[in-house]
Amino acid sequence: MSNYGKGTLCIQAGYTPKVGEPRIAPIVQSTTYKYDDIAHVNRVMTLQEFGYKYSRTGNPTVTAFEEKVRILEGGAAAVATASGQAANVLALTNILKEGDHAVSATTLYGGSFSLFNNTLKKYGIDTSFFEPEQPEEEIAALFRPNTKVLFGETIGNPGLNILDFDKLSRLARRFDVPFIVDNTLATPVLCNPFLHGANIVTHSASKYIDGHATSIGGIVIDGGNYDWNNGKFPDITEPDPTYYGARYTEKFPKAPYLAKARAQFLRDFGACLSPQNAFLFTLGLETLHLRMRAHSENALALATFLTDHPRVTFVGYPGLDALGRERIAKYFLKDAGSGVLTFGLSGGIEAIDRFVKKLKVAALVVHVGDARTSVLHPASSTHAQLTEEQQRASGITPDMIRVSVGIEDTKDIVEDFEQALQ
């Protein structure tokens, strides 16, 4: 289906029914699968043959979702997880171990920053952070002999900076480490990081992929474009004693990283996606190309309105500033900046609270990326666990309000903000 457009792929990719089978990928609500002989089960359990053995490591409904996202991203393989946070944990711990080091952008979702800055540190994994717009050589100075990962978000949450993929992919190649990109806010409709040097892509599927705030889930996509045979990742290249000495690079040459993640980490950590949520995500993907256009158009309209409002101290949106427009033109598949913006409101926390309470169309929720317009105060919620210095490094100020602009009528969204700002 490589010649089809994103809209066709959103609807058609990932599942092809045979004659007499359901037109829509069905919900296979089963934990396990029947076999006729123990030799067949053994071949499946030891990775000698593909098959569903237990829904923790694979399920037909989940496979349909994984395949759709894989095709939309242009990757080699994908594995779904119980949440977006679980996707990033799996993506990182699949190749990081005690004594390893990571290099990451500061402009991350608060949970991701805390994962690097606090939790991984407890397991002996250290992280050095960089400002995304730092000169290349300053970032290069952070790399060490034990550095194993370079990490960033396509669109920072909530800083809304767009990564300089050229600079970061050069650094990843220079130091021979995989480049992992969280593509949640851009979605595969607006950006395909594999086209710009990324090796692994993650998503919180709970956001735009779902699109309706119904389900929690995540996904990791392997680009199949990193050479793991460089001596840095023996767990991928050397025999796995838990699978009769299987070498992932030999048995799964197209996507050994992802094969290991599924075989080991879904097996051991168990953070699998439920079939029901996979079905809802697949349904959400069918309209992703339409929704992202509406989200982006509405966000630009609201950002333009807020720019001229006397109570607004700043507006952040990739489609407004020159650097954002340059990055969109260079790295994005469409001339669109997604559906999230930020702005500063004068008057302190009391003014912010009054503003939020006056909103009628928009609501205060701890979420982003669904059909309904919502607002959030990052400093007191998603990034509350960060120090003020860390918040500012992530692009967050005390007066910042994050807006996830929905797909309601543009006029109604703008008028709602106008009356709430009075």
Automatic annotation (TrEMBL):
Its cofactor is pyridoxal 5'-phosphate. GO terms for molecular function: cysteine synthase activity; O-acetylhomoserine aminocarboxypropyltransferase activity; pyridoxal phosphate binding. Transmembrane segments: none annotated. Keywords: Pyridoxal phosphate, Transferase. The modification N6-(pyridoxal phosphate)lysine is found at residue 207. GO terms for cellular component: cytoplasm. Coiled coil: none annotated. One of its GO terms (biological process) is transsulfuration. Belongs to the trans-sulfuration enzymes family. PANTHER family: HOMOCYSTEINE/CYSTEINE SYNTHASE, O-ACETYLHOMOSERINE SULFHYDRYLASE. This is O-acetylhomoserine aminocarboxypropyltransferase/cysteine synthase. It comes from Rhodomicrobium udaipurense.
